[in-house]
Amino acid sequence: MATAKKLPSGQYRVLIYIGKDNNGKRKYKSFTAPTKKEAEYLASEYLMANKAKNEPLSITLGEAIDVYVGSKYNVLSPATIRGYRIMQRNAFNNIISEPLSNFESGEMLQKHFNKNAKKYSAKSLKNQFGLISAILNYNNIPVPSITLKPPENKNISVPTKQESEKIMKALRNHPDIECQVLLALTCSLRQSEIAAICPKNIEGNIIHIRGARVPDEHNVLVFKSTNKTYAGNRDVVMPEYLSKIINEVAKSKNENDFIFNLTPSAVLSRFKKALKEEGINNYTMHSMRHCFAAIMHANNVPDKYIMEMGGWSSEIVMKKIYQYTFEDETKKAKKEVNSYFDKVINNNL
């Protein structure tokens, strides 16, 4: 939606594009109120009312996103809404004021995605087109067929077994993030799940994962009772050392307090800084979840149990994304295979 602008009178005004007159001149409807929030609310209410009555209205893409998000505000995840708002501000900034009717042919969208392909990943482009498709469908406009950048085969860097051991040892020097990183590395918890842990979720050496905290469209962490997947709600057994230190931290908190005050982004920042100080390669918290799966797989834990412990919804997802072989073990195996081939070749010479 167009942002309300302050007038010389002190009032705030929002202009909504409503089409063109007989001479082709663009027409706008004005909404004025004492505060910025009120003016934007009036404009949003008008757009919603016209949509509900199914009246023809040449709203812009930005206005259409506001209507769509507003109509689904109570069913979409706060993180999903935040993602939509980020796209609205950044990915669509050059077409945000265009009327929806301009996207029906697909020519404008194709040019837009050709341009965005230079700075966004294939996954991001797919998400962007997914939002625009939902907006067009919601407004009964056919979704045009366009070509997107093909998917990239991107692998997340995973610590070797020796590096994971170095990380666990080095964390002793960084008590502010030790619990959080160990929860990802040894229990495969997501950052959003770690941020939502309360003392009531801890029972001895077991953590009951029941919900997550994610940033909303204003970048404020909010709790949601559902996890990223249906398998997200689970009970995880912690290693003895982690159980001891997390129970110690929980003692100073009330039952419903969140144990960790650092945001996921702050934890990641401190983790990267700690790795640099300790002379360890750069990894992310998500890398720790990958490492957990790799350790389980290397120890011949069945996929079914890796999936359950990590909170993945299906074996297909888990195998496609998280089933890794440690780099050092891969090199060792290749060296052994090469030795075998050399013996065979030399014996046949």
Please provide a written account of the structure:
The chain is mainly alpha-helical and 349 residues long. The protein folds into two domains: 134 residues, no CATH class; 169 residues, hpI Integrase, Chain A, CATH 1.10.443. It is 50% helix and 11% strand. The chain has 14 helices and eight strands. A three-stranded antiparallel β-sheet has the order 1-2-3. The chain has a three-stranded antiparallel β-sheet with strand order 4-5-8, with helices on one face. The protein has a two-stranded antiparallel sheet with strand order 6-7. A hairpin with a 2-residue loop joins β4 and β5. The N and C termini lie far apart (76 Å). The mean pLDDT is 84.
Q: Kindly provide the name of the CATH class of the largest domain.
A: Mainly Alpha
Domains (count):
2
| DSSP helical segment count | 14
CATH architecture call of the largest domain? Orthogonal Bundle
Name the assembly state.
single chain
What is the CATH third-level topology name of the largest domain? hpI Integrase, Chain A
N-to-C span: 76 Å
Which sequence of SSEs, written as H and E, runs from N to C? EEEHHHHHHHHEEEEEHHHHHH
The proportion of strand residues reads 5-15%
The fourth-level CATH homologous superfamily of the largest domain is Intergrase catalytic core
Uncertain residue ranges: none
Radius of gyration using CA atoms only: 26 Å
Query: Average pLDDT across residues?
Result: 84
